[in-house]
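Researcher: Please predict.
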Amino acid sequence: MCGIVGCILKDNGNVAPVLFKCISNLEYRGYDSVGLATYDNKINVKKAKGNIKSVNEKMNFEKMKGSLGIAHTRWASTGRPTDENAHPHLDESGSVAIVHNGTLENYTELKENLITKGHKFKSTTDSEVIAHLIRENINKGNDLEHALRKTAELLKGSYAIVAISDAEEKIAAIRKDSPLILGFGKKGYYVASDTPAILEYARDIIRPEEGEIAVLDKNGIEIHDENDNVIERKTTRITWTPEMAKKEGYDHFMIKEIIEQSQAVKNTLGQKDKIKKVLERIGEIKRISFVACGTSYHASITGKYLIESFGGIPCDVVIASEFRYTAKTWDEDTLVVFISQSGETADSRLALKQARKTSKTLAIVNVAGSAMCDEAEFVIQTQAGPEIGVAATKTYIAQLTAIYMLAGLISEDDKLISELYNVPKYINEVTAKRDEIKNISKRYDFADNAFYLGRGFSYPIALEGALKLKEITYIHAEGYAAGELKHGPLALINENVPVIIVAPQGDDYDKTRTNLEEVKARGAIILTVGCEGDEKLAKNSKEFIGINPKVEDILAPLVYIVPLQLISYYVTLDKGYNPDQPRNLAKVITV
């Protein structure tokens, strides 16, 4: 997955500073390499391996000349992170430049065919073939737009492609199974993989459909179908502000977004009436199947527990990449719920296309106008605002908030919904303990392994806490249902292994205390998150973090995860890593 941007200014101003700022806003999508290409009577390219800041110190991108150009920040998928593999890629003559997000499945065959025709390649990426194919089609008499279309017809796989040519003052773009938006600004026109890239310059956007070509010039943007017909489409106004996508004085996006979680809950609670209307439109259902990946999968497990406990509707949770083994059981009485921060997750979108053939589909997403908003029959949009840190925090809490409202409305449990309005206060109480949690975290950066344990509603908290630790600290961490200790994990517990136990008050409290005693007997270093004032837990733990006693097990997923997020954040800092940019990971997986 990568970040791509294109811009053409209405006047003849210098586009490079704009491109550089836009691509900097997309660094969460990849930070293996970065590059820009601008057009000033010829195509100029600067690119190199490294993050945006370090590469810019060498390249000085903002000094590049030209009023139109493209930019790219890479998360390597095909070809190692090297200077040669960085985008933009040129054809052999240097007259065509492209940036690409996605994965081409047939690039090897295409490349071999081009080599037989005399083409020479400089990279080991799949993307470089696109520039060569466009050049081939231009040589046959096509303009940039039609050369790009004919090239796309040859490609198998996923792609969002933005291209320029030295023969035209235009930008052309096309997409398939990868995100792309078009932006209309006061000073120019934009194409990008995600809205944060262009928020400072354009708030009115259009999302082109797959197979449509967007052509940008100084006079505007036109969208053409495969028969060259102009497609008229209304713009969507993005309500996010540029400030929402900035650190605003915080050291990292992650800590800012952890602190913003209380507001994310408040904002998403404001969607209650819309969610109620969605449920009325869905009508009667006999089964719910959640489909998700990563953090959203953990939110889905909470959803299963909530809806089965309160609504009595059978639920199952499917990892999106494994959906094909469940899809045959979906039917017209099944509601398939897809949960995705971005609304662009490739595995979830593939499952969604299958689910539409047999069942009602609902997407819970944070990004307006994303692919899943168009593809699902029903949509609930969470209100977390833009999340830039790669490790999900506030989007997870917003997903949970939407799921809790679903459960409360399905079961007509007004008490459950009313209790949600206290959650922002509980979250703020936890984030106010940042210094305390920071000091605790310093005692855990030595670990090579860690275990997280929870029962019932605390089990998905344990899973998510472990994921946060492994994502950004690179410590091997596993979350387990505490009752599974004797079925294998207990063999790994010793005096060098931290065990983080999630133990709110509730039906499972006594059994969780028993599990605490079991790992303590094996010498484990125990950190417990439990009810404030619980002396029994505190006495039997090396470290103890207290949570408001009013937060019992049912509400725990919304609150008890916050100290675990903070622990991961501070351990990462102690180890000298950047929590916003974990190695080998990027924000939206579209490949």
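Model: The first helix runs from residue 16 to 24.
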